[in-house]
Amino acid sequence: MPLIIAAFYLLSIAVLGFIGSFFFPDYNVEAKEQFFTVYDDAAYWNNISEISNLAPVSEQEIEESEYMIKRNSDIQILYNYLHRQNPAVFNMQVVEIIIDASYKEGVDFRIVAAIMGKESGYCIAPYKAYNCYGYLNKVQYSSFEEAFYELTPKVARYVSIYSWDTFALGRAYGAVAWEDWGAWVYAVANKIN
Q: Which pLDDT does position 100 carry in this prediction?
């Protein structure tokens, strides 16, 4: 009888090991040993000492890095949104113009983009040629890039005065039905993410 119990015990260990290999196929005793011995390697410790000798990063460098990360993220968000609306017009250069002008005026780029959507259907029906903002300045532009470069800062200045009060913004911008204009711009700006 004890011989049967011992045989059953050994068989159950073998079966559990076999089944365990399906659940933990990467478990490797040699790899585990290599993982724990890597810290004894002198090259590892030399690398740590080199890292500790790096120059400290200034607050200005951190702020510039954070600014670039946010700018790049906003460029990608706006590019993805505008490119879906009108891929023939919205390239990275145009999107960077919109983002940079919005940042310079300290406004949310989404409001600037929403104004363009309301005024021209994202450049599908621009006022005069290339004027996607419906900005009434009687100037004829030669390209979308030129129009964006000239008009986006002006539109962003309007936005800087009224910010998210899109009803007052619509009235100041000269929208005919400024209540509907303001509601539309507000709703669309909140959808750009």
A: 97
- Residue 80 and residue 24 share a domain: no
Structural domain harbouring 41: 2-52
Quote the CA–CA distance of 117 and 188 in Å, as a whole number: 8
- Of 140, 129, 106, 127, the C-alpha closest to 173 is 127
Q: How many domains does the chain have?
A: 2
CA 170 to CA 191: how far, in whole Å?
18
DSSP-derived letter for residue 55 is: P
Model confidence pLDDT, tens digit, residues 169-183: 999 999 989 999 999
Q: Which of 163, 152, 155 is nearest to 186 (CA)?
A: 163
Other CB atoms within 10 A of residue 174 CB: 12
22 plus 79 within the same structural domain = no
Q: Do 93 and 173 belong together in one domain?
A: yes
Say what the pTM is: 0.71
Q: What is the pLDDT of residue 55?
A: 72
Q: Which residue do the tokens 């500790």 mark?
A: 52
- Integer Cα distance of 75 and 85 in angstroms: 15
* CA 95 – CA 38 distance, rounded (Å): 48
- Residue 54 DSSP class: S
Is the pLDDT at 10 greater than 90? The verdict is: no
Express each pLDDT in 148-166 by its tens digit: 999 999 999 999 999 999 9
